[in-house]
Description:
With 403 residues, the chain is α+β, with helices and mostly antiparallel strands. Helices cover 66% and strands 9% of the residues. It has a 5-stranded mixed β-sheet, sandwiched between helices. The chain has a two-stranded antiparallel sheet with strand order 1-2.
Amino acid sequence: xxxxxxxxxxxxxxxxxxxxxxxxxxxxxxxxxxxxxxxxxxxxxxxxxxxxxxxxxxxxxxxxxxxxxxxxxxxxxxxxxxxxxxxxxxxxxxxxxxxxxxxxxxxxxxxxxxxxxxxxxxxxxxxxxxxxxxxxxxxxxxxxxxxxxxxxxxxxxxxxxxxxxxxxxxxxxxxxxxxxxxxxxxxxxxxxxxxxxxxxxxxxxxxxxxxxxxxxxxxxxxxxxxxxxxxxxxxxxxxxxxxxxxxxxxxxxxxxxxxxxxxxxxxxxxxxxxxxxxxxxxxxxxxxxxxxxxxxxxxxxxxxxxxxxxxxxxxxxxxxxxxxxxxxxxxxxxxxxxxxxxxxxxxxxxxxxxxxxxxxxxxxxxxxxxxxxxxxxxxxxxxxxxxxxxxxxxxxxxxxxxx
Length: 403
């Protein structure tokens, strides 16, 4: 089919990149909810689905047939994702109408009187495609919302609540008919804010960015488990319970460290996590321990990643309230008036007592590092150069962060 002497389908395909930019710009200008979406989502998912629709329009025109179910799969997936992010359905359908109208205007540009039969046929194809899009998008969106709503009030959430509160398992099973797994991998996650949460705040885009981050973390967890896992996550993190017949490996391609790495990449934010496998009765204690470990990691300045109790044994033990804890913290009290000495000491220990690396990190001369270490020795009577003192210094630094 041709209009104004040009084949419509090849012309539209050639115009897809430029037309995509114009459609996206129109959506941002006309629909406030789209203007509030994170830039990452606009330039990624939204632009991708616009391009897919434009190419589908060209195929429908060229082959003179309706769209197939397979060709509408991407639209259904996109609608389900928008449902999870809380984008209203009316805004999504309006966006599809805007894109279709702009595509039609591009195709009919310069139409001549003799092109009327072709124009009418293309218009008919467009109406059929628009009907298919509306049906596919609406059904996928509503199905996703129904699943989300049922999860909020259904058995999975009841099971998680029972496990976290320590409800007797026989009572829970009798009440709901659900039987907990024999063992659970408990995880506590701390999620850093996504850049879009900060740049879009306090507008609606910040909420969309947060939900998008949480959804990507959940997707990584579900993929690892091969089934939906039990989660209670908000924008800053939360708790995950994953049925596990045996404790999952810590390292390796199928290990928990790889899982946290994948979740970090998917969400686009640093993730700090702690994990422990426990039987159902021990889940509340394991979750509480995980939360303490994540808090200790943050307070002691360790990098994001996955931790277990064995990784923070000293910090964990020193965080228990005792007189010894305060006594250890007082060992470094003479340095409180000299913050540059305390910072040098912390950096020196973090970098393995390497004076040159410490000097580079602090932007000072290595001789200055030596001078400061000698001053620390004079003020506190402790020197990292003496093995016995080094143990006390390390413990004192941990104690200072815990009191």
